[in-house]
Amino acid sequence: MLTPTTIRALILLLPLTAVWIIWLWRQPSKREQIGFFLACAWLTWSLFLLNLGAIYFHWWSFQTEDGNILGIPIDLLFGWTLLWGGVPLLRLSHFPAWVILLILGAFDLLIMPLLSPVLELGNNWLVGEFTGLLFCFLPAYWLAQVTAANTHLTRRIWLLALTFGGLLFVLLPLLILELTAGTLDAVWQRPFWLNNLLLQILAIPLLWGVSALHEFAHRGEGTPLPFDPPQQLVTTGLYAYLANPMQASTALTFLVLGLFLQNPIIALGAVITFVYSVGFANWSELGDMENRFGRTWLQYKSNVSNWNPRRRPYYPVEKAPAHLFVAESCIPCSQLAHWFMQRNPIGLQILPAETHPSQSLTRLTYESADGHYQEVGVAALARGLEHIHLGWALLAVVMRLPLIRPFLQLVTDAVGGDKQTLPSEKSAIVCTPKHQTESTQKEFNK
């Protein structure tokens, strides 16, 4: 019978050796390598949460005394990460996902019962196995596949956000707590209302970071990863105010998370993020960005700071303005147009929706200067707010997020802001009461 030490060594070394052999035997392409590492990053934190759940629901438990994080052996965690991420993704990626699921499931059915006494299985351990294959392996497999093929950018960017968010703000803080003999007692002993308030404060920098990530994919057609960069220089959204909003968001999140967990080491992550940004990240970025974007990048960099946000957005003087089309014949809409004009937005021209040159508009519409990018409804309103000043922009970027924007649009439609037909500039949207006086109409249209 194998000793616990031997079992733990084999679980780590055998998958590591298999990955090394496969890597030498079938040299993966650059994008396949990127997909492999991203998949392993996803598996690292998702398998950690799976094992926490397994301990809580009594699917299985670990009988180990050292090398643990919250009762989970680090060597077994990384061994299973390589087993599920390395071997299938580097050697079996041409098979359909369901075939690999069957292979991994059959392997676990044979191997996991043999890992006693290190791993003790509960009566319902197959539930945990199925959960792991579904929520850990399948997203990792999909992420590796679409990264290698360079497809599904928008969906991929959200999975990347979850991947690095899980590593930085879930796994790393728990590891720090374990290494510093910290506990979660402060959280459990704190009043519920205070925890709720702190979590809402914590969500703010996280949402700003997610919005900046979304802008990279949506407007830049790329990711913040150096080996998968955006194809266009991103100067919109928060990037019109700050050159590195994702790093600023990370620093703020570490600071608030450290306060929430009452752990100064976690809060120190804000300082480490700042040092990394002004040191290595800034140094590695300068040459690459100048080579790819030339004078446009140099002009942007001279006007937008990495850590000191602008009060008003950066918009190149020589660049044509974006357009916000607002229905002139709609009283509330024309009020909104006047509200925008009174605030002197930068790089934004307010135009009557009735005069759009190529289409009949049905909602408030925002159009980029080149006409290739368009937002409607709540998203258009948010884009317009980003042209005013930093305060409105911080609200607007959250309004545009995928889960929040549809909800806000639904609420807006429910209170009368739904689609209206506006076929031509000679037509009018009937969105005000018929008894509205002519003099009042003229007053709003001044």
Write the layout of secondary structure elements.
Elements: H1 4-25, H2 30-57, E1 60-62, E2 68-69, E3 72-73, H3 74-91, H4 97-111, E4 119-121, H5 125-149, H6 153-179, H7 185-189, H8 192-220, H9 245-261, H10 264-267, H11 269-303, E5 322-326, H12 331-342, E6 348-352, E7 365-367, E8 374-376, H13 378-385, H14 390-399, H15 404-417, H16 438-444
Parallel strand pairs: 5-6
Antiparallel strand pairs: 1-4, 2-3, 5-7, 7-8
Helix pairs in contact: 1-3, 2-3, 2-5, 2-6, 3-5, 4-5, 5-6, 6-8, 8-9, 9-11, 13-14
Question: What would your notes on this structure say?
Answer:
- This protein is mainly alpha-helical and 446 residues long.
- It is 62% helix and 6% strand.
- A four-stranded mixed beta sheet has the order 6-5-7-8, with helices on one face.
- A hairpin with a 2-residue loop joins β2 and β3.
- α2 packs across α6, α9 runs antiparallel to α11 (269-303) and α13 (378-385) runs antiparallel to α14 (390-399).
- The longest helix has 35 residues, at 269-303.
- Residues 424-446 have low confidence and may be disordered.
- Provide the low-confidence segments as ranges: 424-446
Radius of gyration: 26 Å
Helix percentage range: 55-70%
Shape by Cα distribution:
elongated
Order of helices and strands: HHEEEHHEHHHHHHHEHEEEHHHH
Kindly, what is the distance between the CA atoms of the first and last residues, rounded to a whole number of angstroms? 89 Å
Q: Kindly state the number of beta strands.
A: 8
**Average pLDDT reading:** 86
What is the beta-strand fraction? 5-15%
Structural class: mainly alpha
Largest sheet: 4 strands, mixed
Strand order of the largest sheet: 6-5-7-8
- Number of DSSP helices? 16
